[in-house]
Amino acid sequence: MKKFTITIAAFILFVIVNSAYSAAPPNDMFAGGITITDAISSVTGSNVDATIETGEPEYGNNSTVWWKWTAPFSGGCEFNTFSSDFDTYLAVFTGNSVSSLTTIVINDDSSNRQSKVCFEVSSGQTYLVQVSGYGYGHDEEGNIILNWQLGGPFSDWILDYSSTNMHLGVRFAYDLSVLSCKYTDIVTKYFRTNDFGCKLTKNEYMTIYPDGFSITDKKENKKVENKPLEGIGNDTEIEDYNGKQVLVYDWENIKLVLYGVKKNAFVKVGEQEIKDFDDAWFEGSEIYITLDDDQKKEGLKVFDKKLKKEKWSDPLDYGYHYVVSKGLTAREVWTGENLKIICRKKGKKKVSEHNLTEPPGYYLKYEIDKKGGVLYWTKISITNSPLTYLDRKGKKIADNKSMTDVGDIWRFRSSDGKTLYVSQDNTSSNFVVYAYKLKGMKKLGQLNIDVPKIGSLYSVTVDKKVYVVSKYSDSIKKYGAHIYDKRLKKMQWKEDYAEGSIQKIGKDTLRRYTSSQIGNTVTRVYKLFNKKGEIVTYTFVYDE
Q1: What does the alpha-carbon distance between residue 46 and residue 52 come to, in Å, rounded to a whole number?
Q2: Closest CA to 311 of 319, 303, 300
Q3: What contacts 370, CB < 8 A, 6 or more positions away?
């Protein structure tokens, strides 16, 4: 009986100690933010075992803690996390609710992986300071030292420097035609300081296209030659080209503009004002536009092929947002050690919802397939781990299955929802690519890539075939390609090692790119080829 009593007592002590150790910090929640005062001071704290709330801005990882500071007078203020013992992320907000805060300033690394922010404050205004770690989940946690100082007002804007650089832009379409342009980037930088050296900076951008834009088809005919895009501002960016249309984002006027190609000219087809713009591209007969605001909310808008009518959208919200395939999106939201992945069809119908857990001390890795299923595994460092695959209905097609023949060092390459492709570095000059059927994790085939020197496996792309690109060596940058059937049983064709990187760009078509420079003159060469040989070579020459 005495032995049993001691065992129970030891167990209770273990629970008490363990609970105390794993307790969240007192300022884990926004509402529990610790009030700090004074114009110049510092405090200590910790984000170990901290969590993230629903609706909380997600700038760093999920281990966030809060402080509240009211400015005693107006001026220039600096907050930093110098001397903290982990890789920090620092953000400052105003507002009363965790889900409706206004971002003032953010910073990741300023010095030795610690953060620093400078901003202008108003007397009597309360500022909310969030400290977290870099990365995802709970990658970075530790002891925090939060320092701050408030000084006099900032000076007027002072010119720092201005730079002008010439570039060449190219966009290839699926029909293998190419849109090209020479453009000049003009960047002007300014700064403001106060009495203790707190510094604010701002950049102004301008992009000039002195020769307009040209389109050349795969027979080397000029469809358009040196023609301008009318009706856009001085800070623009080419987003996509599909052989018949060009998408351009006008940063100056906050709008996306669509141009058609007609009779050696570009004709405006449509335009839309798009705030919080991130990226845009052609997806079949639709135009996809991803959004990303200053509080790390992400979303999507989809328009018709003329950029006239919005067809559907996935509104801005917290969580990493992906376009998985046409019409299918995924949003990934971390809550503590739990990851929720929600896939929706055209922004409305929920296709799947997966809830995954990241065990303490492990890294959760995952991939989402084109149908809303998810492949996931956990690992420590580079140690191999069994994989689980859930289809979009949540059914386990593979449950904690290991890949036979694959050792501890492997790398996920691609998956089409049926077959998984991984690679392994066996020796310094031999790489193996494996194909596994996701259902039951059955091995379908493998191929060995013998690289003549100490090189690397560059990419594995899966279409109707498997395209494996490898690099000869880091010092001798030669690339080759091997094209196999989807089971890796039979090689269809290959491209020998030669100068220039290789990328798949069209139906059974690869592109090799090389660049050389003599003085200020740059020559770029793009060779397009397939199983039958060279299709066309595009050469562009410009002065930097």
Answers
A1: 14
A2: 303
A3: 324, 325, 328, 416, 417
Q: Which CA distances in Å does 417 have to 266, 340, 375? A: 40, 19, 9
Per-residue pLDDT averaged across 71-89, rounded? Answer: 94
Q: Are 436 and 443 spatial neighbours (Cβ–Cβ below 8 Å)?
A: yes
Q: What is the pLDDT of residues 102-153, one digit of tens each?
A: 999 999 888 788 999 999 999 999 999 999 888 766 678 899 999 999 999 9
> One-letter amino acid identity for 197?
G
Distance CA 477, CA 45 (A): 49
pTM flag (> 0.90): no
Q: What Å distances lie between residue 382 and 322, 337, 363, 404, 424, CA to CA?
A: 26, 20, 10, 17, 11
- Quote the radius of gyration of the chain (alpha carbons, Å): 27
What is the average per-residue pLDDT within 379-408? 76
Q: How far is CA 159 from CA 118, 120, 163, 195, 203, in A?
A: 18, 19, 12, 18, 10
Residues 6+ apart with CB under 8 A from 152: 75, 76, 194, 195
* Cβ atoms 150, 121 nearer than 8 A: yes
